[in-house]
Amino acid sequence: MLRAQFEKDLRQLHEEFHTMGEAVSLSVYKAVRAFIKQDNEIAQSVIQGDSKINEFESDLEKKGLEMIALQQPVTSDLRLIITVMKAVNDLERIGDHAVSISKAAIRVNNTKPIFEIQEKISDMADDVLKLLDDALHAYTEGNSEEAVLIADRDEKINDYFKEIYEMCIRVMKEDSDLVEIGTDYLRVARFLERIGDYVTNICEWIIYLKTGKIVELHSSNDE
Prior knowledge:
Blueprint: H1 2-37, H2 40-71, H3 75-107, H4 115-141, H5 144-152, H6 154-174, H7 179-211
C-alpha cells in the first residue's frame, strides 16, 4: 500500500515538473512575442504570471523533500526526485529571464525597431524555444542520448549572441540615437543565451536521472 502511494506520488512529481516546463516555455514565447510586437499587454501578462512559476518551484521542492524524508526511496527513485528538485531551479530561472525580456518589451514600446537585429533575435528565440521544448520531451522520455545532442545545439545559440552583439555595437556606433534600443536588444539576446545555458543544465540532469553520473556538457555554464 505504501509503495503504491509512493509510486503515485512519483508520477505526480514527474507530471507536475513537465507542466511547469510547459508553463515556462509559454512564458518565454509570450515574452519574445511581446518584445518583437512591442505589446505591453502580453508583456504584463508574463510578468504577472511569474508568481505561478515560482509556486511550481516551491511546491515541487517541498514535495521532493517530503518524499525523501518520509519514504527513504531506493536509488533510482531518489535520482528522479533529485533531478526534479534541481531542474525546477533551472526552469524557474528561465521564467525569470522571460520576465526580464518582458520588461525590455515595455521599455522599447513605441520605439522604432531595427528590423535587421529584431529578425535575428526572433530567429534566436525560435531556436531557444525548440531547445527548451526538446529538452522537456527528452526528460519525459528519459532519453539521455537525446539530451546530449540537445545540449550540443546550445553552441548555435551562443553564435547567435555573438552575431547580435556585433550588429548592435555597429549600429550604436553609427547612430547614437540607437544606443537605448540597441542596449535592450543586447540584453534580450543575453537573456536568450542564458536560457540556452539553463536548458543545458536540464540536459545534464536528464543524464544523471538515467545513468547516475553527474556530467558537465557545457564548460561555460555558470550561475
